[in-house]
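seq:
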Amino acid sequence: MSGEQDKPAIRIRKMAPEDLDQVIEIDQLSFSQPWPANSFQFEMYNNPVARLWVAEKIPETTPARIIGMMVIWMVIDEAHIGTIAVHPDYRRLGIGSMLFRHGLTHLQAEGAKLVYLEVRRTNFCAQELYRRLGFCMFDERKGYYQDNGEDALIFILDHLQTRNFS
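struct:
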């Protein structure tokens, strides 16, 4: 898919139990180290600091389809992006940015002052998105990713309350 004419109608909403199969599929298609399936269930049902969002494609006639997901942990006034991914068929259409902006707006409303995340050193597309949203590289974690020993870059977005994500 490419081009503005192919951009689907999207609704961002809280993740629901019926979304889990599609969320797990997106995670498995997106990462060499996907989360165990029960991790999403834990975040949804047992982690009070978790905020879970999905991007849902709104079709005209068939059931809606989950095409993106995001997990954020909010602790006091700091947020950590646990994971974010868009289904491979829908990448480079602005859906990740839309999902991220939605999550950041909600974090602002909850009083977050700072957001951080880890990203693979070689994931240039994700780094580009984070920079467009105002994140800056803050530090790195050597050998963070267990599958290949790749370093993680830590990106941070501070002064969240002064930013506009609309």
